[in-house]
Amino acid sequence: MNIHIFTIFPEIFASPLGAGIFKRAAEEERATVEIHNIRFFTHDRHHTVDDSPYGGGAGMVFKPEPVFEAVESIREKIKQTTPERTIPIILLSPQGRLLTQEIALELSREPVLFLICGHYEGVDERIAEDLATDSISIGDYVLSGGELPALVLTDAMLRLVPGVLGSPESPIDESHSTGLLEYPQYTRPPEFRGKKVPEVLLSGNHAEIAKWRRKQAIIRTWKRRPDMLARAGLSDKENEFVKQLQQPEEMV
Ligand code: SAM
To answer: Does residue 67's CB lie within 6 angstroms of at least one atom of ligand 1?
Structure first.
């Protein structure tokens, strides 16, 4: 997978891309992330990327020319290896479709992706309408730029690219992959400050462990994110179990 990120703050990416999942994906040759500075695609002395909004109002808006030019220039450059129609061009925006695990999985299957990071008051609407093919929001709040959202989206996608995570099972059981929140996890020591690891996890009985984990995942989801249960594909028996649950004092 090759991800191309378009930004006016390339320096924001230096540290995150040099560590963790980003570094690992590059080292394993599973993915590349290339950062493109939109300012390099301006033609005036000051490398102007923004201008005041027509109609007045606070803040500045990204001009269309440098963003179109940046995207089109990179698209032209990689044309030989990637037919144009296969490249989704995603604008990071608080107005986009809300990022979910399903969307991360869908996008992680794309061989090439372009991500455009806005800034200031946002971008000229023609970028959203005529250049971007999709728009993603990472949550119902407003950040000052699309750089952190682009990193969030990239992290969520990369860990779903086969071979990037150490264990192929890791993403399968995780919160949101099964439609449920993940069950509680423990590691050594078996007792810490008087609190013991549930006996079943030390039993070595894999069938019982799987049953316990499923039940815990249902309980946890019911307590913390009941809205997810309707879409979780529970069996009749599990739905019956949910009906019997009583809200306890403490969160699991
Ligand atoms: N004025 C815009 C609005 O009300 O929709 C918000 C602009 S925001 C200050 C600047 C940039 O940050 C956006 O163009 C977008 O790229 C990015 N951004 C901010 N919040 C975001 C979010 N929740 N998800 C994705 N991108 C976001």
So the answer is: no
